[in-house]
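tool_call: predict_structure(chain=1)
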Amino acid sequence: MTNRCCAECGEDGGVSLKICKACMLVRYCNADCQRNHWSTHKKQCRIRAAELHDEVLFKDPPPKEDCPICFLPMPVTILSCIPLPDATITSVPIYDFAVANAGLAVQRTEEFYSCCGKSICKGCIYSFCKSGNARKCPFCNSDRVIKTDEKEVEEIMKRVGANDPGAICELANDYNSGNIGLQQDDEKARELLRRAAELGSSHAHFCLGIEYYEGGDLKKAFFHYETAAIAGQEEARSFLGTMYERSGNIERAVKHWIIAASAGNYFAMHSLQQLSEKGIVSRESIDSALTAFNDSCAEMRSEARSMYIAFMTAIKNNAK
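tool_result:
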């Protein structure tokens, strides 16, 4: 029997046969044949479907999105842009360095502008403001003089109406935090995140993964984290590594952490270091991941971002 024949009745239907979408291995002439053959096919189908899923999940992720002004990869946290001390390159205490610089480790590295729908890195924003243009958008140069909440809502709603995933995520954040005069509404925020996820936003999938994980729905959390990770969201991939470690599947945890660390995720790099100290991850794997980690971070550094980091560090120190 070939894949030109129905796996159940053997009829040669050629290209008119419908392939099993889960495993892509067998074909059927109709839904009845597929249902009747399921008891025979299900084991093979589930094994192959899992293999196909892993091929997609663990392939090299797409490159990070670039800042539309400096065209450098956009870091998840500003910590990725800090030149690491020698100690972090030789003995990998990256997490300790992150804890010591916690304010930078969790700080957003981009800002969404509803006027043009662009997310711009804080380095470019800082440089633009320093050049005397603090009252304008760094990308479209539109007037950003302090606007009323009503104007801000009107502006972002226009982009939401045009199905801009970035604007929808931003509005979800505003509802979640009660910003720009909106009443805090968690359910509305979730609705918007689901809408942005359907439009392909990896950030929305990541946020939904957090929502479902904290709500105890691990199946949905896995789905959204995996969807975000496949799209290149290294935070989601690092979280997947943690979930697999907690479930005892160290092999899959390591796979996820290596990919996340190679994209510049310091927590994944730290997790690999801990496993190396326990003898679970080889020194060669650590060295390879660390080299990729440092290379990825180096690609995200710039003079403008360094100036912004110095500015924020000075503010932090003055506040002590």
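agent: The mean pLDDT is 88. Proceeding to next step.
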